[in-house]
Fold this protein.
Amino acid sequence: MNQPATSATDIITGQQGPDLMSDNEATLLAGLRWLHDTEQPEGAILQHHGVVLEGVGNRRFGFIPSGRADRAIVTVDVAHLTWEVKTFRITNPLRRTELTELTAQLATLSAEVVGTWNGHPAPTGSLALARPAHPTLLAAVARYHAGCPTHSAKTVLCDCDWYTTGNALIVAPTVHEYKGAGR
């Protein structure tokens, strides 16, 4: 029988241990600060799925500049799925209350969630944020959607180095600088 979550660590990671919560908090904080506060250089290009940062407790977090209803999105995914062989049923989906608990955790980091979808019994969940992504990050995604300016017929699937060069300019989030940093 499953035990109820007994600590803040259990809430986010599904596992116990004093370092797990702080590690995921650092991951969330790094992603949120990247999404909202990090200025991207002119010419930077980012594909619309944003970035993914590894968490702890078998979780991975995505930070999407512009998703559903043009909102910035945070996603949580089970990093390594396990399956029941006979039924192909996922045996380690997100917990039933995980999106609610993640909403509360994001609120402690000053990120207001205005909507959620997916979640239990799926291996992924999405949370729409009230605050939009940084304008320069949105511009980097817009450049991606506009496609290669030189070879416009190929749009985002151009064979030239347009995307590689622009994507190399992206200032990426780094988790290590936020470990132990608090809010």
